[in-house]
Structures are given as structure tokens and as C-alpha cells.
Design goal:
This protein is an all-alpha fold. Among the domains are: about 55 residues; about 40 residues. About 80% of the residues lie in helices and about 0% in strands. α1 runs antiparallel to α2. The radius of gyration is 35 Å and the shape is elongated.
């Protein structure tokens, strides 16, 4: 039996070393995956900010590049003042509509944040919170 006991020892050592190597590899994969996930989570907001800034800058310069030359030409050429006035009035109207849309969106958010709805301050007045 002593021969079997001596044979079990050399076989157990390579198996232990393989098991230890596999455990170490598994830990390395877990650590690598968690650090990769951390890097991705930190990169996503930065990428979002970059894309947002790029889109904003592109739209801003495109709008400026169209509006400024158009208004400049409308002011320089005699008789085209009404075109410039129309463009300015249209831009003002568009800004007003956008401000109204923002106000409506803010009101909807406020209504969603307060599910009980606004309080009725006058007798006989009903308030519809889903408007």
C-alpha cells in the first residue's frame, strides 16, 4: 500500500497545480471583465457628451451659416427688406412656439411628479390633471 500512497502524491500535485492555475485564470477573467465594464461605464458618458456637443455645434453652425448670409443679402440688396423682415418674424414665431412647447413639457413633468394633482383653491372649480 505504500506504493499506492507514494503514487497518489505525485498525481495530486499536478492536479492541484492545474486547479490553482484554472482558479487564477478565472480570477483574472473576472477582474478583467469588471475593469472592462468599469472602463466602458466611464467612457459612455464621455462619448454621449461628445456626440451631443458635435450635434449641437453642427446644427448651430449650419443654422448660422444659412441665416446670416440670407439676412445679409436681404439687407444689402435694395427692395429685399421685406424678405429680411419675414425671416426675422418667422424666427421669432418659431422661438415662441419652442418656448411654449418647453413650458408644456415642464408642466407635464410637474404633473407626473405630483400624482395627486394640483389643489383646488376655489369652490366649484374642477382641475383636470391629465390635460
Amino acid at each position: 500500500m505504500s506504493a499506492e500512497a507514494t503514487n497518489a502524491s505525485p498525481v495530486a500535485d499536478p492536479l492541484r497545480s492545474v486547479a490553482t492555475a484554472m482558479a487564477t485564470a478565472a480570477e483574472a477573467v473576472r477582474d478583467g471583465a469588471s475593469s472592462a465594464a468599469t472602463r466602458v461605464q466611464s467612457a459612455v458618458p464621455a462619448t454621449g457628451r461628445f456626440v451631443s456637443r458635435f450635434v449641437y455645434s453642427t446644427c448651430y453652425f449650419a443654422a448660422y451659416g444659412v441665416t446670416f448670409p440670407t439676412l445679409f443679402v436681404a439687407q444689402v440688396i435694395p427692395g429685399l427688406g421685406s424678405i429680411g423682415d419675414g425671416l426675422v418674424d418667422g424666427a421669432t414665431a418659431a422661438s415662441t412656439v419652442i418656448e411654449e412647447m418647453k413650458a408644456q413639457r415642464a408642466a407635464k413633468r410637474a404633473a407626473a411628479a405630483n400624482p395627486d394633482g394640483p389643489e383646488v383653491t376655489e369652490q366649484g372649480v374642477e382641475v383636470c390633471a391629465n390635460v
